[in-house]
Recover the amino acids of this structure.
């Protein structure tokens, strides 16, 4: 028997009976287990950690940026090595210990909060660790492991905000008429959501006429775009039952293991942006682990000689390529230039600099490259890093690149000086080359084709009123009023494009030539697909000036949407804004729930709902918090002290 073989002591020689020997050994092994376990569960000790944790786990991550090899390396790395290497905290011991504590299961947000406030959370952490894993817990175990490398992210961000995100009373305005209007917008959201839920649950968009769902091919097999795009809107509107349904869908049905071809840009602004803001607003770890898993799947798109990502990526294999319609295999400015906000936040959440490195590499290249008249053309080769065509537009293909420059500056707590400089330089070039005054006195942004102006402005370009407005404070002091005036003039022109149509909704593009003034002259430009940009500018201009006309203009849009776009089972785009016999396009776009209705709701809310000092909206209107580095570092130090 094994007892007899124990070296040194002969159990039988001590005259013990078999049952006594068994009890003795049981006691001995219990003691050993207890001592060993204590090494891990007792408060952290640097010395013990040095002995028991391997060296690699405490090394800061060092990853190169933007090169083809880095991305290939990333792809080659076996999955199980990916997280430990990629997600290791660079901040030292506190997070390393927490990581080892919560290896197996997700650490609940509530437990984390209690821990910070000195409650019994350490116990909770240990208990949650030993709970048996459910199927869905298993499915996200890898992410939870990474997510827990910095379990305090949400609390840290919350403590670094200047004001409560939802204001005093959810932004409820004191004026009854405005409140009534706000309630109307909330009702529209509920109607749009309920119909999506009834007829298209889990699909990407609702088809309100045929009462079914639409999947499309923009999201590479990912589903539920309307769910992800709605999470934060439902939450800020206080539609909590609906929000809970949406959250549950994410928990049970959002499958990120798709193998289809996705637009990097669309997945980033809708899914990454939507999950990030849902996480920051609610603190639900579920959203954090999902967004971390998704973020990682996007990295191979940067696998190009320049690090400029291609437009399309297969989310399963990581292979990427350019859009067939983009000239000479080029990448699109508005696509690769609209990743910065989300990717910087991915680095914050994961403690992994790789995401920031990827977008900083894009920034560096764009800053360095020669620009015709200071303008940024819309097509760039991801292979050579040169412009492919000299088409410049503040509307489609270019738009959100400019938006992300100024917003990167604002989101960095006004520390990202390069972004600021690039933004104001670009704006100067836009003013010098593209800003025009029509015969009728309307200010508009023309497009530029190799030096020749095309006197057309797209609906998409109407976001620029708001953008120029929010950037007015940070340029040269003497230009502040000038920028506010320019922002107001552009917003006015966009409003004109609405008032000059029969439906009071604006066309996809309007022109200022051949006698036209803010009207579409081509049949193919007459449609309206529930886009937000004009209303987005009303919202910003309202916050910046409190001129009541912006709320009135917003209300005109609500009435027009109700009259022409609301159908039995949701809201639909229309084919021609110039006729009252409307023809519906049978599509309730996910950005209608994410942007159009959210901006309307904010327009009729007090300014303390998602205050602009604390929040920056991504281009799909998902709010992301300002990153206050010094505050966050202080918080990290405090967290460390608490844990020691
Ligand atoms: C949205 O997905 C985003 O606003 C994007 O930047 C541009 N197009 C749509 C809305 O029109």
């Amino acid at each position: 028997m094994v007892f007899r073989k124990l070296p040194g002591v002969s159990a039988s020689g001590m005259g013990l009976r078999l049952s006594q020997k068994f009890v003795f050994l049981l006691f001995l092994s219990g003691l050993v287990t207890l001592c060993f376990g204590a090494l891990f569960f007792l408060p952290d000790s640097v010395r013990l950690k040095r002995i028991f944790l391997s060296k690699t786990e405490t090394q800061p991550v060092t990853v190169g940026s933007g090169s083809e090899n880095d991305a290939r390396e990333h792809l080659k790395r076996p999955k199980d090595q990916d997280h430990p290497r990629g997600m290791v905290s660079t901040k030292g011991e506190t997070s390393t210990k927490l990581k080892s504590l919560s290896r197996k299961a997700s650490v609940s947000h509530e437990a984390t909060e209690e821990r910070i406030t000195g409650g019994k959370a350490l116990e909770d952490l240990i208990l949650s660790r030993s709970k048996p894993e459910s199927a869905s817990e298993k499915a996200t175990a890898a992410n939870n492991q990474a997510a827990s490398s910095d379990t305090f992210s949400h609390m840290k961000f919350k403590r670094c905000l200047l004001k409560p995100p939802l204001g005093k009373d959810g932004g409820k305005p004191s004026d009854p008429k405005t409140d009534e209007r706000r309630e109307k917008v909330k009702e529209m959201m509920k109607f749009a959501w309920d119909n999506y839920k009834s007829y298209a649950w889990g699909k990407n968009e609702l088809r309100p006429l045929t009462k079914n769902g639409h999947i499309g091919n923009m999201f590479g097999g990912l589903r539920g775009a309307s769910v992800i795009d709605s999470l934060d809107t439902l939450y800020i509107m206080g539609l909590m039952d609906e929000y809970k349904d949406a959250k549950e869908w994410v928990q049970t049905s959002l499958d990120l293991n798709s193998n289809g071809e996705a637009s990097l840009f669309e997945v980033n602004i809708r899914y990454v942006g939507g999950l990030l803001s849902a996480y920051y607003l609610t603190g639900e770890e579920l959203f954090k682990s999902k967004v971390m898993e998704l973020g990682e799947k996007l990295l191979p798109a940067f696998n190009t000689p320049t690090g400029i990502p291609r437009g399309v990526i297969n989310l399963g294999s990581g292979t990427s390529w350019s859009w067939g319609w983009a000239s000479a295999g080029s990448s699109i400015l508005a696509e690769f230039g609209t990743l910065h906000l989300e990717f910087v936040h991915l680095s914050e959440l994961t403690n992994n600099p790789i995401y920031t490195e990827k977008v900083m590499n894009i920034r560096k290249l764009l800053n360095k490259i020669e620009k015709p008249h200071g303008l940024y053309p819309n097509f760039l080769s991801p292979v050579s890093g040169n412009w492919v065509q000299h088409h410049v537009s503040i509307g489609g293909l270019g738009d959100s690149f400019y938006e992300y420059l100024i917003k990167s500056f604002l989101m960095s707590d006004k520390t990202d000086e390069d972004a600021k400089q690039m933004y104001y330089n670009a704006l100067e070039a836009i003013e010098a080359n593209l800003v025009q005054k029509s015969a009728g006195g309307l200010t508009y942004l023309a497009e530029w084709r190799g030096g020749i102006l095309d006197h057309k402005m797209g609906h998409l370009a109407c976001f620029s009123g708001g953008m120029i407005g929010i950037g007015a404070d940070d340029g040269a002091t003497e230009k502040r009023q000038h920028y506010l005036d320019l922002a107001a003039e552009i917003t006015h022109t966009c409003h004109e494009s609405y008032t000059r149509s029969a439906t009071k909704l604006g066309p996809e593009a309007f022109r200022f030539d051949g006698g036209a003034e803010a009207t579409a002259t081509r049949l193919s430009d007459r449609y309206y697909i529930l886009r937000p940009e004009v209303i987005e500018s009303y919202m910003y201009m309202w916050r910046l000036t409190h001129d009541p006309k912006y709320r009135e203009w917003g209300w005109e849009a609500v009435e027009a949407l109700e009259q022409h776009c609301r159908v039995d089972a949701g809201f639909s785009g229309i084919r021609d804004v110039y006729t009252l016999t409307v023809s519906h396009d049978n599509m309730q776009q996910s950005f209608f729930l994410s942007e159009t209705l959210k901006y309307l709701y904010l327009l009729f809310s007090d300014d303390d709902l998602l205050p602009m000092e604390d929040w920056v909206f991504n281009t799909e209107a998902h709010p992301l918090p300002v990153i206050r580095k010094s505050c966050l570092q202080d918080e990290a130090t405090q967290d460390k002290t608490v844990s020691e």
